[in-house]
Backbone:
């Protein structure tokens, strides 16, 4: 049976950093499902397709070849990893991700990936929908202030100039859309282990998760 680790939580909880380290430790393929929603948002913006144009949007998504190579998102042969992190994409992605038809197409793609590879997948609906049968599920949280500060530092490091307050507002707005949308809202799966990362280092969180995985693998849980 394939190994599947699900990591969910709100923006800035540390999911992607932590999932990447976990992937190396357990030799898993890291799938950043948020990047896929960001990729759809980028291509929609480039092609002037608004979230209301559901039919055109679905046709566009079906025409895309999307895969990960060394944790980089490649769409139709182009590495879009940097562009999808820009604030104009962050500000719009939750609107596209709230559309049921968009989710259906991307969830299907994500399920196919999990059948081909041992994966650690991060997102909003991984433990509840995409990998609902996964034996290892985690839900990472942190206070909105800590999450906004992390995102702010990350953008500055990448040379993107931003105001802390704009990032904070974006995080609050996305939390609201992600948790209240009808289609697969962000929520902790009943069987997920919740970890508040506000005051923990990346390695501490990864160690907690690794211990849980190892204990469960050797049937001690
Ligand atoms: O990295 P960050 O936490 O800022 O967000 P992300 O993981 O890149 O996801 C961007 C957005 O995509 C989220 O705010 C959600 O609106 C959406 N998303 C989703 O709806 N379902 C997922 N499985 C992953 C992301």
Residues:
């Amino acid at each position: 049976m394939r190994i599947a680790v699900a990591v969910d939580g709100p923006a800035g909880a540390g999911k992607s950093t932590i999932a990447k380290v976990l992937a190396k430790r357990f030799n898993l393929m890291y799938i950043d499902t948020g990047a896929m929603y960001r990729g759809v948002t980028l291509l929609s913006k480039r092609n002037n397709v608004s979230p209301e144009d559901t039919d055109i949007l679905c046709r566009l998504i079906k025409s895309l070849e999307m895969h990960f190579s060394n944790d980089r998102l490649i769409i139709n042969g182009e590495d879009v990893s940097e562009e999808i992190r820009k604030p104009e994409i962050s500000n719009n992605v939750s609107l596209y991700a709230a559309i049921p038809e968009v989710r259906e197409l991307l969830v299907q793609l994500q399920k196919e990936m999990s059948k081909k590879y041992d994966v650690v997948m991060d997102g909003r609906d991984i433990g509840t929908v995409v990998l609902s049968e996964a034996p290892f599920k985690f839900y990472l949280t942190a206070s909105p202030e800590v999450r906004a500060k992390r995102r702010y530092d990350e953008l500055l490091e990448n040379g993107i100039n931003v105001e802390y307050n704009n990032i904070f507002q974006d995080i609050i707005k996305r939390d609201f859309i992600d948790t209240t949308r009808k289609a697969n809202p962000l929520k902790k799966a009943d069987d997920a282990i919740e970890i508040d990362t506000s005051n923990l280092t990346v390695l501490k969180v990864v160690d907690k998760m690794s211990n849980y995985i190892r204990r469960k693998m050797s049937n001690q849980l």
Notes: Residues 11-12, 16, 33-35, 37-38, 93-94, 97, 123-126, 174, 178 surround cytidine-5'-diphosphate (CB under 6 Å). The two ends are 19 Å apart (CA to CA). The chain has a mean pLDDT of 95. The domain at 4-141 is CATH 3.40.50.300 (Rossmann fold).
